[in-house]
Amino acid sequence: MLVSLVGMPGGGKSTVGRQLARQLAVPFVDTDHVIEERIGGSIRDYFAQHGEVAFRDLEAQVIDELTHDGTGVLATGGGAVLREANRHALHDRSTVVYLRSSAEEVYRRLRHDTQRPLLQVPDPLRKLRDLHRERDPLYRRTAHFVIETGRPSVPALVGMVLMQL
Ligand code: S3P
């Protein structure tokens, strides 16, 4: 069984995903890490050198590969749902959980982050609000169920996912 986590950057996909995989005793894979291994560098530098479209192409390829006969827990990048092919691959080939967080919540977590290229803008909170507005319907459409991340601890979130599987 493959479980995929989608949601905003800083919404806890990697943290929850790692613990969920441990509980299920299955491998944990983070698409961003696979991409960084493949390009031999950071996503931030790749964005700067090759642009977002090249990154999205690579991301789509990795998602396609990882969702084929996969077993485990897959944490996706926050923009994975932007492409229809990714939404279909994730929805049709895995159980998708949307870890739903508000723009304000992820801003609190990410305000000192320098690694996420999309947030290297003068007003990151505004950017996060725009991303949230644009993506929330896409995350919902891709997911089989939604879990609000606002209050519960990480172990509680893991428990909530496990109950839904
Ligand atoms: C992105 C989110 C990042 C990473 C890339 C683009 C996005 O992943 O894939 O920087 O478009 O929201 P996280 O959601 O793990 O931060």
Automatic annotation (TrEMBL):
Superkingdom field: Bacteria
Predominant place of localization? cytoplasm
Judged by the first EC level, this protein's enzyme class is transferase
State the PROSITE patterns in the record. Answer: SHIKIMATE_KINASE
Q: Where in the cell is it found?
A: Cytoplasm
InterPro entries tied to this protein: P-loop_NTPase (IPR027417), Shikimate/glucono_kinase (IPR031322), Shikimate_kinase/TSH1 (IPR000623), Shikimate_kinase_CS (IPR023000)
Which cofactor(s) are needed, names only? Mg(2+)
Molecular functions per Gene Ontology: kinase activity
Spell out the CDD domains in the cross-references: SK
Q: In which pathway does it act?
A: Metabolic intermediate biosynthesis; chorismate biosynthesis; chorismate from D-erythrose 4-phosphate and phosphoenolpyruvate: step 5/7
**Entry EC number(s):** 2.7.1.71
User: What are the binding positions for substrate in this chain?
Assistant: D32, R56, G78, R135
Task: Please tell me where ATP binds in this chain.
Answer: G10, G11, G12, K13, S14, T15, R116
Note how many cofactor molecules are bound and how: Binds 1 Mg(2+) ion per subunit.
Gene3D superfamilies given for it? P-loop containing nucleotide triphosphate hydrolases
Protein role: Catalyzes the specific phosphorylation of the 3-hydroxyl group of shikimic acid using ATP as a cosubstrate.
Could you identify this protein by its name? Answer: Shikimate kinase
Q: Provide the species name.
A: Aquincola tertiaricarbonis
What gene is this protein a product of?
A: aroK
